[in-house]
Amino acid sequence: MVPIMKKIIDIFNDKERTYSFEIFPPKTDKGYEHLLHIIEGLCKLNPDFISCTYGAGGGKRDKTFDIAEHIEKNHHVASMAHLTCVLNTKEEIKTILEDVKSRRIQNILALRGDPPLDNPHWQPTENNFKYSSELCAFIRQEYKDYFGIGVAGFPEGHILCKDKKRDAQYLKLKIDSGADFVITQLFFNNQDYIDYVQRLKKLNVRARIIPGILPITDYQNLQRFCNLCGATIPIEIKKIFEPLQGNPEETLNAGIDFAIRQCRDLLAKGAPGLHFYSLNKLSPADKILNAVRI
Ligand SMILES: Cc1cc2nc3c(=O)[nH]c(=O)nc-3n(C[C@H](O)[C@H](O)[C@H](O)COP(=O)(O)OP(=O)(O)OC[C@H]3O[C@@H](n4cnc5c(N)ncnc54)[C@H](O)[C@@H]3O)c2cc1C
Q1: Is 80 helix (H, G, I), strand (E, B) or coil?
Q2: What's the whole-model pTM score?
């Protein structure tokens, strides 16, 4: 068997474009069992890597690393574990990273995270990393080149920093602190992504900026999520999906159609791959990937 290329940056050296998925740890044992089947299906699509979120939306934190390890050991696909600074002390982060290393996982998406809903006023102290860039610097300093490090990017600016130029400078700080590549927040207007890449180029950021793609499957959920993360729902999306409310099948089909058009356009304009927010579903990610992969 050919050994898997475990570090995503090594895959970049080999491939002009990568195709990958994000999954999240389910809250129940039954959900976990179901996810293992989904992972099997996603791996059959031959992705370059699969990433697993950490604590997002109150999800189980401890399962992230089990899932990332499972993907590599059982499916021989590179995995990336997300890790957030929020709630973890620096000491705890070190313990977690030792655990991740002992599992031979070599990719970390280094994030600040957000205070959880049940502790919304949580604030970092001197025992915490305040920003993702501090976490990147720590990982690089402690583990040299063992880990490949990804970070989050925000084509429309982060919800707490709508000054896009300043937000891009903070992104550059993450790269200068040791990050290797960027995965973006969802967006629907490709021009936002193109402009973001240009802004970062002007700042001399050479890292790959991989667009994060959310296939729309549930318009109400989308509205809730965009409210939380600050992503814009353009008029074009409203016009397509508002009339379809109450019709899940047509919403799903329209979501697949829109994502295929969005992905083809991004690839034609030079995006170095696509990272799909799978929401732990095999379809529509499989249909979209099969239609757009080049
Ligand atoms: C691809 C992707 C995956 C994600 N996965 C998860 C996950 O698994 N779990 C989860 O909980 N959340 C996840 N998130 C959400 C993310 O944690 C939130 O968006 C969070 O609010 C920002 O995280 P960050 O790492 O970008 O933070 P940072 O880069 O630290 O930025 C946070 C804020 O501080 C500002 N800032 C940065 N540096 C400085 C500085 N030096 N001085 C002043 N201001 C600064 C930024 O502009 C921004 O407003 C993900 C987001 C994306 C795009």
Answers
A1: strand
A2: 0.97
Fold observed for domain 8-292? TIM Barrel (3.20.20)
Ligand 1 mean position, distance from CA 221 (Å): 21
Ligand 1 and 149: CB distance under 6 A: no
CA distances from 249 to 69, 73, 79 (A): 34, 36, 31
Domain ranges of the chain: 8-292
- Omega prior to 116 cis, within 30 of 0: no
Q: What are the pLDDT digits (tens) for 13-62?
A: 999 999 999 999 999 999 999 999 999 999 999 999 999 999 876 666 78
Say whether 33 is catalytic: no
Q: Is the CB of 112 under 6 A from ligand 1?
A: yes
- As given in the structure block, the two tokens for residue 164 are 């896009």
3-state secondary structure of 277: strand
